[in-house]
Amino acid sequence: MTQNQMELHPRLTISQQMTIDKLKDKKVPLVRMDGGFWTYEGCPSKTEHSENGDYQCPDWWIAINTVRVLERYGLLIRTNKYIEEWRDNRELKEG
């Protein structure tokens, strides 16, 4: 995050800052997995079990609320890989 971005958004939550740090470290976009999990591309996952059956849960994930706030702050942008906003990948805004 640039100094200018920190001045504009000095109150990032721990989850928001961890997301920025993870994307900087991995250098890959955020992707939406089935079930609504937002994680980084290539994140390992494990099989979880529920009454409705088995599903894949990534080792690291965030909620859509975090994605939306970081977009509103101008820190994430859409990649336009998909037409639908709700499933389009996100990446760090350069600069």
Description of the molecule:
- The structure is a single chain.
- With 95 residues, this protein is an alpha+beta fold.
- It has one domain.
- The chain is built from three helices and six strands, in the order ααββββαββ.
- The strands form three sheets. Strands 1-2 form a two-stranded antiparallel ribbon.
- The N terminus is likely disordered.
Structure characteristics:
disordered N terminus; 95 residues; globular; two-stranded antiparallel sheet; single chain; two-stranded antiparallel ribbon
Short description:
With 95 residues, the chain is α+β, with helices and mostly antiparallel strands.
Topology (elements, then pairings):
Layout: H1 3-8, H2 14-26, E1 30-33, E2 37-40, E3 45-50, E4 53-58, H3 64-72, E5 76-78, E6 90-92
Antiparallel strand pairs: 1-2, 3-4, 5-6
Low-confidence stretches: 3-7
Fraction of residues in H or I helices = 25-40%
| Helix and strand sequence | HHEEEEHEE
Question: What is the makeup of the main sheet?
Answer: 2 strands, antiparallel
Query: How do the strands line up in the largest sheet?
Result: 1-2
Helix/strand-derived class?
alpha+beta
Number of DSSP helical runs = 3
Approximately what portion of the residues adopt beta-strand conformation?
25-35%
Mass-distribution shape = globular
> In angstroms, what separates the terminal alpha carbons?
8 Å
Q: Whole-number radius of gyration?
A: 14 Å
> What number of domains?
1
Q: What's the total number of strands? A: 6
Mean pLDDT score, rounded?
A: 88
